[in-house]
Automatic annotation (TrEMBL), chain A:
KW Oxidoreductase (keyword) present: yes
Name of the protein in its database record: Uncharacterized protein
Limits of the Dimethylamine monooxygenase subunit DmmA-like N-terminal domain: 5-126
Classification via Pfam families: DmmA-like_C, DmmA-like_N
Keywords: 2Fe-2S, Flavoprotein, Iron, Iron-sulfur, Metal-binding, Oxidoreductase
Any one Gene Ontology molecular-function term assigned to this protein's record: 2 iron, 2 sulfur cluster binding
NCBIfam families given in the database record: mono_DmmA_fam
Organism: Mesorhizobium jarvisii
From TrEMBL, chain B:
Names of the cofactor(s): FMN
Protein's UniProt name: Oxidoreductase
InterPro entries hit by this protein: 2Fe-2S_ferredoxin-like_sf, 2Fe-2S_ferredoxin-type, 2Fe2S_fd_BS, Beta-grasp_dom_sf, DmmA-like_N, FAD-bd_FR_type, FNR_nucleotide-bd, MRET
Keywords: 2Fe-2S, Flavoprotein, FMN, Iron, Iron-sulfur, Metal-binding, Oxidoreductase
GO MF entries: 2 iron, 2 sulfur cluster binding; metal ion binding; oxidoreductase activity
Entry-linked Pfam families: DmmA-like_N, Fer2
PANTHER family: CARNITINE MONOOXYGENASE REDUCTASE SUBUNIT, NADH OXIDOREDUCTASE HCR
Length: 198, 321
C-alpha cells in the first residue's frame, strides 16, 4: 500500500461496484485479485455488461480466476503498449455510463488513467486499487525521458544517465513521477542506492 | 459581510416584457464603464428597495459573456411568492437606479467536457442563454433540451431555435411531449457533461436517472435557486451578538438577521452556495429545511441551518451568530 505524502502523490482506494450497465476493468498481475475480491460484493449479473482487459504477470497467474467471473468480454494482453490501441478504441466508442476500474501496479493505473483523461473521464470518477509492485514510472525532468519500473532511490535515468531523486511529485498528464538530479553540484558524489519501491 | 458580493451601481437601461409571466431587465453601469466579465451560469444578487423593506434575490445573467456593456436578467412573476418578482414587474422602470452584486458563478461549464448536454425546465432556461452564447463563441459542442408548459410560455425558445437551430430541442407539456430521458442519457458520448436547471422535481429526476445509469457525479451539474418560502413567524436568539429577533411571515431568517444589524456571510441567497451555513446551539421544535447544501444527515441532526431559505417552527431556536 502506497504511503500518503504530498498532494500530487496519487492515492488509491478499493474497487467497489458502481451503478450503471457498462463496466471496463483494466488490470495487471495481482490486480486480478482486486477484481475477484470486488466481484464478491457485486450484484447478480454485474459482469454481463463488463469487459476485463488483463495483462498477466510473468508467472501468468490469475487468468482462470478472471475468466470464472464470466465477463461479457475478456481480453489478454502481453503489455500495456499492446493493449493501448484497443483501450483507445473502446473509450472512443463508449457512451456516458461506462465506468472504469483500474487495478494493479501504479504504472498500469497511471497509464490507463492518462488515456481515460484524454477520453474525457474525470480522474475522481475512476475506481482504482493498487496491488502488487510499488515500482514507479519516472520522468527525468532534465531530458524528459521516461524510465519504467524504477525500484531504487535514487535511480539512474535510462536515457541521459543522470542519477535522479525519485520524487512523490506525480504528473497525471504524463503518468509519471518526477526524477530530479540528486548530485547536480558534484556528480562524483554518489549517495547510497536503496531498494525503495519493491 | 456578504462574502464576494462587492456592489455595482447600475441603472435600468431597458425593461422588455417577454411573455405573460416573464420580463427581461437590462442594467448598465451608472458611470458608463464596462461591467465586470462573467462566465455562463453566473448570477447576480439584485437589491430591491421596496419602501422600508430590502429584498435581495439572485438571478442568472442571461446575456452573452462576450458583451459586458450590459447585464440582462429575466424575472418570472410569482403571484404567491414573497413579492420580489412582483416588485420587479411593477416598480422597476427604465432609468431606475439600482444596486446589484458582482457576478458569482456556482453553475459554471466544465470546459474539459467533450460535449455539453443541457436540460432546462421553464425559467431555468436563463443560465443556458449565457452558456450557449459562451460555447457558440468558442465553437463548443452543445445540445439543449428545453421543457416548457406551452409554446407561448417557452421563454426565449424562438431566439434559441433561430440562433442554434437543431441543437435546441423543445418539449411542450400541453402537447404531451416528454424527454425520453433514459435514452438521452444512455446515448451520450464519453466525456459529456450534463447541466440541469429547472424546478426541484426535474432536477431530482434527472440526477437520480443519471446516477442510476452510471453517470459519475463529477459530470452532473445542477442549479436550483430555492426562493425563500413564506411561513409562520418565529423567534430566534442570536447567541454571539446577544440579540433576540422575530422572523416575519414574509421574511427569510437571513433577512431578519440582517435587519437586526448582524452581517452574516452570504453569496447566493438560494440555498446552494453554503456561505451562510449557521450552527444551531439549541432548539425546541422542528426545522423546515429548504436548501440544497446541507447533507440529509445535517438536516436530521438539527445542528445546522441555512438561514437564506430555511425556517423553523417551535418554541425556541438559538443560533451561533
Amino acid at each position: 500500500m502506497a504511503a500518503k505524502s504530498i498532494i500530487s502523490r496519487p492515492v488509491y482506494g478499493t474497487l467497489s461496484p458502481q451503478p450503471g450497465k457498462h463496466h471496463l476493468f483494466i488490470a495487471d498481475a495481482e490486480g486480478a485479485l482486486a477484481i475477484s475480491d470486488m466481484a464478491a460484493k457485486a450484484p447478480a449479473g454485474f459482469f454481463d455488461g463488463a469487459e476485463i482487459d488483463f495483462i498477466p504477470g510473468p508467472d501468468n497467474k490469475h487468468v482462470a480466476t478472471l475468466k470464472a467471473l464470466k465477463p461479457a468480454q475478456f481480453h489478454l494482453a502481453p503489455s500495456f503498449a499492446s493493449l493501448l490501441p484497443r483501450l483507445k478504441q473502446t473509450l472512443g466508442n463508449a457512451h456516458m455510463g461506462l465506468r472504469l476500474y483500474l487495478a494493479g501496479t501504479e504504472g498500469l493505473i497511471g497509464q490507463a488513467m492518462q488515456v481515460a483523461l484524454e477520453a474525457g473521464i474525470d480522474h475522481t470518477s475512476i475506481q482504482t486499487e493498487h496491488r502488487g509492485s510499488l515500482a514507479r514510472r519516472m520522468q527525468c525532468v532534465h531530458c524528459k525521458g521516461i524510465t519504467e519500473n524504477v525500484t531504487t532511490q535514487p535511480a539512474a535515468c535510462s536515457h541521459c544517465g543522470l542519477l535522479l531523486l525519485v520524487r512523490d511529485h506525480y504528473s497525471r498528464r504524463l503518468a509519471a513521477f518526477q526524477g530530479v538530479c540528486i548530485n547536480a553540484e558534484d556528480r562524483s558524489e554518489i549517495p547510497p542506492i536503496e531498494e525503495a519501491f519493491p | 459581510m456578504s462574502t464576494g458580493t462587492t456592489k455595482l451601481d447600475v441603472v435600468v437601461s431597458d425593461v422588455v416584457p417577454v411573455n405573460e409571466l416573464v420580463t427581461c431587465f437590462h442594467f448598465r453601469r451608472r458611470d458608463g464603464e464596462l461591467l465586470p466579465t462573467f462566465s455562463g451560469g453566473a448570477h447576480v444578487v439584485v437589491e430591491m428597495r421596496d419602501g422600508d423593506r430590502t429584498r435581495l434575490n439572485p438571478y442568472s445573467l442571461m446575456g452573452s459573456p462576450l458583451d459586458t456593456r450590459e447585464y440582462t436578467i429575466s424575472v418570472r412573476r410569482d403571484d404567491v411568492g414573497r413579492g420580489g418578482s412582483l416588485f420587479m414587474h411593477r416598480s422597476v422602470k427604465p432609468g431606475l437606479e439600482m444596486v446589484i452584486s458582482y457576478p458569482v458563478n456556482l453553475f459554471s461549464l466544465d470546459l474539459r467536457a467533450k460535449k455539453h448536454l443541457m436540460l432546462a425546465g421553464g425559467i431555468g432556461i436563463t443560465p443556458f442563454m449565457a452558456q450557449t452564447a459562451q460555447l457558440a463563441g468558442e465553437g463548443g459542442n452543445f445540445e439543449l433540451h428545453y421543457t416548457c408548459r406551452t409554446a407561448s410560455l417557452g421563454t426565449y425558445a424562438d431566439v434559441l431555435r433561430e440562433r442554434y437551430d437543431r441543437r435546441i430541442r423543445l418539449y411542450h407539456d400541453d402537447r404531451d411531449e416528454r424527454i425520453d430521458l433514459d435514452r438521452l442519457l444512455s446515448t451520450q458520448p464519453l466525456g459529456t457533461h450534463l447541466y440541469v436547471c429547472g424546478p426541484a422535481g426535474m432536477i431530482n429526476w434527472v440526477r437520480d436517472r443519471a446516477a442510476a445509469l452510471g453517470w459519475p457525479s463529477e459530470a452532473v451539474h445542477f442549479e436550483h435557486f430555492a426562493a425563500p418560502q413564506p411561513g409562520l413567524p418565529f423567534d430566534v436568539t442570536l447567541a454571539v451578538s446577544g440579540k433576540t429577533i422575530r422572523v416575519d411571515e414574509q421574511q427569510s431568517l437571513l433577512e431578519a438577521i440582517e435587519a437586526a444589524g448582524v452581517d452574516p456571510p452570504y453569496l447566493c441567497r438560494g440555498g446552494v452556495c453554503g456561505q451562510c451555513e449557521t450552527n444551531v446551539i439549541s432548539y425546541d421544535g422542528k426545522f423546515i429545511h429548504n436548501d440544497h447544501w446541507l447533507s440529509e444527515e445535517d438536516h436530521r441532526s438539527g445542528c445546522k441551518i441555512m438561514p437564506c431559505v430555511s425556517r423553523f417552527e417551535g418554541r425556541s431556536l438559538v443560533l451561533e451568530r
